[in-house]
Amino acid sequence: MNRARRIVLGMGSNLGDRPATLASAMAALRSDPAFSVLAESPRYETPPAGGPPQPDYLNAAALLASELPALDILDRVLAIERAHGRIRPDPVRWGPRTLDLDVLWIEGEIHALPELVVPHPRLEQRPFALRPLLDVAPDARDPRSGEFYVSLPAAHAPIRRVP
Length: 163
What we know:
The protein is α+β, with helices and mostly antiparallel strands. It has three helices and eight strands, in the order E-H-E-E-E-H-E-E-E-H-E. The protein has a single domain (about 5-160), classed as 7,8-Dihydro-6-hydroxymethylpterin-pyrophosphokinase HPPK (Alpha-Beta Plaits). Helix content is about 25%, strand content about 25%. The strands form two sheets. Strands 1, 2, 3, 4, 5 and 8 form a six-stranded antiparallel β-sheet that branches. A two-stranded antiparallel ribbon has the order 6-7. The longest helix is centred in the N-terminal third of the chain and has 14 residues, at about 20-30. Catalyzes the transfer of pyrophosphate from adenosine triphosphate (ATP) to 6-hydroxymethyl-7,8-dihydropterin, an enzymatic step in folate biosynthesis pathway.
């Protein structure tokens, strides 16, 4: 049997009604009995990280508790993306998305699978993912190094918080 642990999901949208999409994704997480939603970060507007020219993203993070194994968490997250019109694999690498949900961090866990890498690759360099994570889990540590994420330079990079 698995134990409940904290999970941080990164959330992003840059197509359609971005605030409504993020709110709908949060509602889907809250309605899933396998998850307890513990916190939601403020929202940030950030330029896309690579890819073709596209609109800015609205980013946030959700702190959850769950006993599900990591791949089951991923399956549920991908189902929420599909329900919001996300097509995987993406037709354009790093292209625009109705909804992007990423498993950023699972407390005390490391996964390096073809379908899931946790902590999320490049988390340490991406303020648009790291800042919302720290809003909901300020004590989060990299499970590989034990280093607090708040000590990383990207945790202090300026990004625009929006209402």
